[in-house]
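## tool: complex_structure
## caller: assistant
## args:
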Amino acid sequence: MDVSGTGIQEPFDLIRLSLSERVFVKLRGDRELSGILHAYDGHMNLIMSDVEETIMIVDTESAMAGQGVVNVAKRKMEMLFVRGDSVILVSPPSRT
Amino acid sequence: MLIFSVFKTLTDQTVTVELKNDLSITGVLKSVDQFLNIRLDNIKVADEGRHPHMMAVKNCFIRGSVVRYVQLPAEHVDTQLLEDATRRDAMNQVKR
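## result:
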């Protein structure tokens, strides 16, 4: 199964290589997280620290008027468990 | 199983559970099971004005599937240990 040692063979390897790095997580309900990944499992349950949550709230009244105003609420949490069934995607840090 | 073990080490600590219906409950973690169902004692609901029906509730059992987040006490989480355990877990998944 393991062909080249540390290479990427399956999708979860991408998440494994992001351990202890800052990742971007998109969740159901127009929520996004940015935090340092410390643990995950096969359900994509995550444990992250130093988390900033961004909640997108579309203002329905102005959206009807044709101007898509999106209000953004942010908050920070020190250590957070995220249940896997809310997770849409996990993105590793951009290596620039 | 890994996340289950993490929660077991956090019993008798104070945690904040945020549910998928936006209800936030802070309480002492009394027990947890393999489905990540959670039992909380001595609970306090954030924004009680919006949830007056919860005022009389002193302890509760939360079905794991309705949980969105659990805010953990950072000082009781060993992040290095978590990352090592997660890598070990991921290795075993591949072997199977």
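## assistant note: Chain B touches chain A at residues 1-3, 6-7, 20, 36, 64-65, 67-74, 77, 79, 82-83, 85-87, 89-90, 93-95 (CB under 8 Å). Chain B has a mean pLDDT of 93. Handing back to user.
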